[in-house]
Design brief:
Length: 333
């Protein structure tokens, strides 16, 4: 979803995070930009959108209204001559060659204005070699350079890289603010409310969940993970095993474990009574609150590490079936 860059004040286009937005606004107004900034936050909370809006505001600073509108449009389209962008996209990593390619011209003067910007979306997906290539220019950047990075967590970056960037933690709006946002777009109703609470107010994730293009596939993945949690809550071990054996390859297994990881905070909010009474999409409505989410998270994390280490898929599925069943009620009756 492309951000709307029509406002002359980028802070009016971004939901929530008033303190972060005030700080960014002050940094631009004072013309005291650090040479490298990192926006960190959970998937779907808007870190990339904020980075794009910020880049547009920096590039159009001091320009007359008509010129500023042109610049914002170019940034949105990815065609501005002083903005270079790289993201992992559908790939699992950002290579050293991709990073070297986008910093090749960073030492040339900007075509327009005072800054030349490199935006790396999903910077945590950079390989160690790519991060080290970036580190070289971060250590001695030209005065006109500005690096904008986004990541789900700063911990995904090497300590040497992290020490050279200014970090901003981006939090999603509340589920209620998220619901209000989509109601203003004509997308109200129970499905929107469910998605808003499911994703903790992350507008980007809710938009994908409701979209015609990505929605059906995402909804199917969410439903599969919810059904598995429901089976764990009801101790239906055969259903747990069937759900874990359903993935046919490593990518599908990784997707299931990722969905489970993202759903555990929803289960915690449900247990704390922070989710309003609308129909749940799982087969253990009342029992899901009894799951030991901390123990489940630990075992799911172990499974994801094993998957990254190329363990045998069938053996992983068998061991996870047993470990998750035990972890789900660890410390309980």
């Amino acid at each position: 979803m492309s951000p709307d860059l029509k406002s002359t004040d980028f802070t009016s286009e971004f939901k929530g995070n008033p303190l972060v937005l005030q700080t960014l606004r002050a940094v631009i107004d004072a013309r005291r930009l650090p040479h490298a900034m990192l926006f960190e936050g959970q998937q779907g909370c808007g870190t990339y959108t904020l980075a794009v809006l910020f880049a547009a505001q920096v590039l159009c600073q001091g320009q007359p209204a008509e010129q500023a509108e042109r610049i914002r449009r170019q940034v949105e389209e990815g065609s501005h001559p002083d903005l270079r962008v790289v993201t992992s996209g559908e790939r699992s990593s950002i290579s050293v060659d991709e990073v070297r390619a986008i910093i090749e011209d960073i030492y040339l003067r900007p075509n327009e204005g005072e800054k030349k910007i490199i935006l790396i979306g999903g910077a945590g997906e950079m390989t160690p070699q790519a991060q080290n290539a970036l580190l070289k220019v971060l250590e001695e950047p030209p005065e006109h350079a500005l690096f904008l990075l986004t990541a789900e967590s700063r911990q995904a970056l090497l300590p040497t890289v992290l020490s050279r960037v200014v970090c901003f933690s981006v939090l999603p709006p509340s589920p209620e603010e998220c619901i209000e946002h989509f109601a203003g777009l004509g997308q109200g109703g129970g499905e929107t409310a469910f998605a808003a609470h499911l994703f903790g107010g992350a507008i980007g994730s809710v938009a994908r969940y409701l979209s015609e293009e990505e929605g059906p596939a995402l909804q199917a993945k969410v439903q599969a993970a919810l059904d598995l949690l429901g089976a764990l809550a009801q101790r239906r071990l055969s259903a747990v095993a069937a759900a874990l054996y359903r993935p046919k390859n490593r990518d599908e297994m990784g997707a299931l474990l990722e969905e489970l990881t993202q759903l555990l905070p929803y289960c915690q909010r449900l247990a704390l009574g922070k989710v309003p009474p609308f129909p749940l999409r799982m087969k253990a409505d009342g029992e899901i609150v009894n799951l030991n989410t901390e123990a489940l998270y630990r075992e799911i994390a172990r499974g994801r590490v094993s998957l990254q280490r190329n363990c045998n898929l069938s053996l992983l599925q068998a061991s996870l079936s047993d470990r998750l069943a035990r972890a789900a009620h660890e410390g309980g009756q």
